[in-house]
Design a protein that fits this description.
Blueprint lengths: L1 E3 L2 E3 L1 E4 L4 E5 L6 E7 L2 E5 L4 E5 L4 E4 L5 E5 L8 E4 L1
Antiparallel strand pairs: 1-2, 3-10, 4-9, 5-8, 5-10, 6-7, 6-9
Length: about 80
């Protein structure tokens, strides 16, 4: 984890069967940056779905419900992302 005034960066690994449940952040933006594998991000208010590959990024505004999961398939072992 890397942190400083107004930010925090974590590297997270998602297994092929793992899903991050619906949640939201009251005061912080959640920015996804994919390092390895592919992830899908699902958002509400408004409803939206994104698929991110390595090198791609997406930001979820504070208060917006979202969840994510790895894009599965043969030979896929997981995904890594910065948040």
């Amino acid at each position: 984890m890397l942190s400083g005034p107004g930010f925090r960066i974590n590297e997270l690994q998602i297994s092929p069967t793992q899903q991050v449940p619906w949640h939201y952040h009251t005061h912080t933006q959640d920015t996804f940056y994919v390092l390895e594998g592919e992830i899908r991000i699902f958002c509400r208010d408004p409803k939206e779905e994104m698929r991110l590959a390595p090198g791609q990024t997406y930001a979820v505004r504070p208060g917006r419900p979202h969840r994510c999961r790895m894009v599965g398939g043969p030979g896929r072992t997981g995904a890594r992302r910065l948040a």
